[in-house]
Records
---
Amino acid sequence: MADETHFTSLNDQALLVKIKENSDYLGIVYKRCKANCLGFMRKMTNGALNDYELEDVFQDANIILYEKIVNGDFVLTASFQTYLNAVCRFQLLNTLGKSKLTTDFQDNSDDGDDENPNGYYSSITDSLDGVDHSNEAQFLAIEKALEKMKAAGGHCYELLTLFWYHKKSMNELTTEFGYNNSDTTKNQKARCQKRLEKLAYNELNN
């Protein structure tokens, strides 16, 4: 695990070096940049998206950053904050531009199956028992997607692993994460699950 006790002394370039050595350090970027990014997006969306949805956008931005770094050719020309704000802004413009500020982000972000011709998403359900473990490529894609989700920070990795592997109920997860009620928890799990599906599909087709 990354030692966060001295993270405040690391500038962004030094932190980038640490992330390349150990992806756990990406969690420092997540914590350092989250509040500013959420505030920036709240102003940009003017209430069109709730905080849960904005956190989803922020986590997606962290996953994009993580993928750029592990590809080995990433150059940080500004700050992590500026970079993540820009990625979040691009995602929001893309989403809200399509919806004209009237359609829920999650509904809009998963339109159709054009990017999923083989119905891969349906293989990840409320139980991992349905995943064909004999299909090594599919199983490894899910494992890699979970690793990316964990490295990016946020609640999704923990929520899904508690639900799938530790068999936590919606009521238990509601208490664990401090959500308003079990319906909110179900919505969060569904969003996290869809994010995992997309990541796994991308892994399978890279």
Note: DSSP finds nine helices and no strands in the chain.
---
Amino acid sequence: MEMALNSDTNYQSLNEGNPFKKESEDFNIQDHDDTPGDSGIMIHMVPETNKARWNHIEDLDSFFTRMYNYHQKHGFSVIALDEIFQLCKFAFVVWLLTFTIYCINYQVLFGDSPPPSNHTKVTLRDVVIPTRQCIANFNAFTYLLFLLAILYFVVHFLRVVSLITQYMDMKKFYQTALHIDEKEIDNTTWHEVKMKIREVQSEQHMCIDKEQLTELDIYHRILRFKNYMVALMNKNLLPVKFNIPLLGEYVTLSRGLLFNIHFILFSKLKRISFIGSISIFMRFSTDRAI
């Protein structure tokens, strides 16, 4: 009798009377509908690198000086072309001096000897010496001058590459932080640039010493080296006065002395290294590609 009762017993699932099951299913359906993967939309999370890029700048003096020069020299294109043309001018001067000294037959040019072609009129072919003969006329002193010129050209070339990469970075700063395109440089006053710099300081904190920058702070950064040099001159700490016999006192300040003072007191080796310039160039290229 008991076995018959047990066989007729029906069991009912608890899920049928569970009030939370329906809510859970509705929530799963709603969450599934909100999933962007099934809707065909891809979401890319891009970090805000522009805001973090210009904060806590290490060398504000050089940065503000380049910023001022970028504005006064009318943008990146003018600065880059000027530096490249300076290199081309130096190479042209070296070639012109070499050509005029070793590759021109001045005796034929001034009529001291007849031209090799036996013409009554002197032509360029009669005056210009062939290239092989010009090279054969070089001596040891000429090769030494060529070596010095090549060394100067290489150093100047590395300097130009460094400046161009730095001003590429400055161009990026003007476009992303100050919102000033290169075409608008000539129509933007330096006062407007200073106002935008102060706004960027309040947002990104380029200078960690102050919350806000004044115009006087910006000018102090730009003119720090010149003011320091004026103070050294006023205190008579620089050896710029020389007593020349029969001529008296003579004052001179060479560029080499200025470079050494700036290098010792205001520069670091990593700021002028070529590797640092290449890293700036690679960072600019990566940001532009993104």
Note: The CA atoms of residues 211 and 222 lie 19 Å apart.
